[in-house]
Amino acid sequence: MPQVRLHFNLDIDRESVWLTVTAAQPARASIAYVQELGDFRCGPDYFTDRENLPSYLIKLCLNGEGTLDYEGQRYGIRPGQLFWIDCMKPQYYRTAPGRDHWHVLWVHFTGAPCEAYYRLFLAQNEGKNVIHPGSDMAIRSTLETLLNLYREGGNTLLDDVQASAMLIQLMSHCIHVAGSPSGVNRLPGYVIDARSYINLHYAQRITLDGLAHALSINKFYLQKLFKRCIGLSPNEYLIYTRLTKAKQLLRTTANPISQIALDVGIHNIGHFITLFKRYEGITPGAYRQYWYDSDSAAGP
Predict the structure, then answer these.
(1) What is the pLDDT of residues 88-115, one digit of tens each?
(2) Quick one: CA dihedral 50, 51, 54, 58, positive or negative?
(3) How crowded is residue 300: how many other Cβ atoms within 10 Å of its Cβ?
(4) Separation of alpha carbons 58 and 91, rounded Å
């Protein structure tokens, strides 16, 4: 692993909090865990210039203003905004030039599931590292709860497990905000209509052109908007919907697999079997056999 490069100026006041955490070995081996965290009230000369640190960093601006240089982008970080970065890559953040303070809550963390969540975050946020939760207090509350957990002496495996659950909640909420235009929790009308159309007509032939025509919207705009909000393209969502319906039929009916494929809108049995195995890891026949041979075959 390459050596960490670090240059910084810790211009923070006496009210600032900086906690280093040593997570228990079982936590480090299998779950998301905290490395360090803090509540910094930064002065005008605060900055960090770093790379090759095996850690993720989420930093929320409470007031004042900072800047982040990352992946060829310069972001202004204003109150209510946060950034989430992979600290293996070069990063430079500081109190914004001309500003006299920058108040931030932050947490460094890593662990087995974090990379997947980070990739989902970037996918939902069009590759950008900054979001604006605005008046949504969930992220701030989670960071403050994490800080209090370790400030009060949390240093057991059970504390680490509790912290891991909060990290998952924190990452999940960041992804949710990233996928909600302007930080609003409600899906755009076109996305709601497109999802409803697919849920209703999945057994029929659906193309992007046909879906866009039915909704009177540009197909390229629909594709981009749907992907951003749902995390899947319309066609991927259609596939998941069809396979979900197929699994229900495989578990609850004795219909031939060829008929089930037709019932969910897939007219080529070979294509149906290939799709099913790609997404589920087993064939439709093996899936049915598994459930019929188990105590769960009759359902919950």
Answers:
(1) 999 999 999 999 999 999 999 999 899 9
(2) positive
(3) 3
(4) 13
